[in-house]
Amino acid sequence: MLSTLESLLKLARDRKDNPINGSYTNKLLSDKSLSKAKVLEEINELIDAVEKDVNKTHEAADVFYHLIMYLEANNIKIEDVMSELDKRKKWVTTIIIFLQKF
C-alpha cells in the first residue's frame, strides 16, 4: 500500500532531476502557481465528493498526487513531514501521560 506512495514520490523526484517535455507531472513541479491551484481544486473536489458520497476514493487519490507534487515543487520533503508528525505523536503521548497523573 505505502509502496504506491513511495513510487509516486520517486516519480516526482525523478522528474525533477530528469524532466520529460510535455509531462503533466513536470508542469506541476515547475509551475508553483499551477501546483497550488490544483491542490486547492482537488481538495474542494474531495470535499464535494465526500458530501455527495460519490467518487471519494478517486478524488482522494487526486489530492495525494497533487499534494506530493506541490510539496516537491516547494522543496518540502515528505521525510521531514513524517518526522514532524512523529514529533507531534510523541508530544501528545507525553501530555496524556502527564495528565493521567492528576
User: What ranges have pLDDT less than 50 throughout 5 or more consecutive residues?
Assistant: none
Q: Could you give me the name of the CATH homologous superfamily?
A: MazG-like
How many beta-strand runs?
0
- Annotated CATH topology: Helix Hairpins
- Spatial separation of the terminal alpha carbons: 41 Å
The biggest sheet, with number of strands, parallel, antiparallel or mixed sense and barrel status, is:
none
Average pLDDT works out at 92
The CATH class name reads Mainly Alpha
Radius of gyration: 17 Å
Helix percent reads over 70%
SS content category: mainly alpha
Order of helices and strands: HHHHH
CATH architectural arrangement:
Orthogonal Bundle
Number of helices: 5
How many structurally independent domains?
Answer: 1
Beta-strand share of residues: under 5%
Label the overall shape. Answer: globular
Write up this protein:
- This protein is mostly helical.
- The chain has 5 helices and no strands.
- It has a single domain (2-77), classed as MazG-like (Helix Hairpins).
- Helix 1 packs parallel to helix 4.
